[in-house]
Write a structure and sequence with these properties.
CATH class: Mainly Alpha
Structural class: mainly alpha
Strand content: under 5%
Strand order of the largest sheet: 1-2
CATH topology: Growth Hormone, Chain: A
Oligomer: single chain
Largest sheet: 2 strands, antiparallel
Order of helices and strands: HHHHHEEHHH
Number of strands: 2
Helix content: over 70%
Number of helices: 8
């Protein structure tokens, strides 16, 4: 159960980041390799399948995608140095890094280079690791399995007449809505401008990071 109210900046940031991840994932599915980028369950399965089939090239691609997502998580730990969401951490730097990775991914994918998939996966790993929890609520912005599971449990509890944590429910619904809308926008974007659609979540992350950095700068207590 959440131990304190969810600030507006977490709600708004979660909505934007989940939307960005949904957009990136849609481009991954619609692109040349037709695979998820923002989460790894399918990629792990694909790695096992290709190893069993003996297709070394596809297995290597899946392994590289896994490794780059993991590398993004490591990068987040190096930048933020904390697994709990708390104002004042170096989120602006992390978001700027994510924006740069997505912009580079768009460039490489536009030119047919598979490195674009890996950079996009690294960006998603970085984003997902930026904030793993807030005040007792697990926050994930690049995959929805856990969120949908928790919402299902909450609905079952309501059906039984039991109390649930409505603050957490609202947070999870915001994240789910953002991811869904990001997927819709990613589909329209890919149809119109192809891989350059990734520049949209890159801009969102860059603007969010810049806005957060400015907010922290101007609200910092005077020495």
């Amino acid at each position: 159960m959440l131990t304190k109210p969810v600030p507006l900046w977490i709600m708004a940031g979660g909505l934007l980041l989940a939307g960005a991840a949904g957009c990136v994932n849609a481009v991954g599915f619609l692109g040349a390799h037709h695979q998820a980028i923002s989460h790894l369950s399918g990629t792990v399965t694909l790695l096992g399948i290709e190893l069993a089939r003996g297709d070394g090239a596809l297995a290597l691609h899946a392994a590289a995608t896994l490794g780059c997502f993991f590398g993004g998580c490591v990068l987040s730990g190096l930048i933020i140095r904390q697994s709990t969401l708390k104002a004042g951490r170096r989120y602006g730097v992390a978001l700027a890094g994510e924006a740069a990775l997505l912009a580079a991914a768009a460039y490489f994918l536009r030119h047919g280079a598979v490195a674009g998939d890996y950079l996009a996966a690294m960006a998603c790993g970085l984003q997902n690791a930026m904030a793993t929890s807030y005040s007792g609520a697990v926050i994930r912005t690049t995959h929805m399995t856990g969120i949908i599971t928790d919402l299902g449990i909450m609905l079952g509890l309501v059906a039984r007449g039991e109390r649930i944590d409505w603050r957490r429910t609202r947070l999870y619904l915001v994240l789910l809505s953002g991811f869904f809308l990001g997927g819709v926008l990613g589909c329209y974007g890919y149809g119109a401008i192809g891989y350059d659609t990734l520049l949209v979540p890159a801009a969102v992350c860059g603007a969010t990071g810049t806005g957060y950095a400015l907010f922290k700068h101007f609200t910092r207590p005077a020495a």
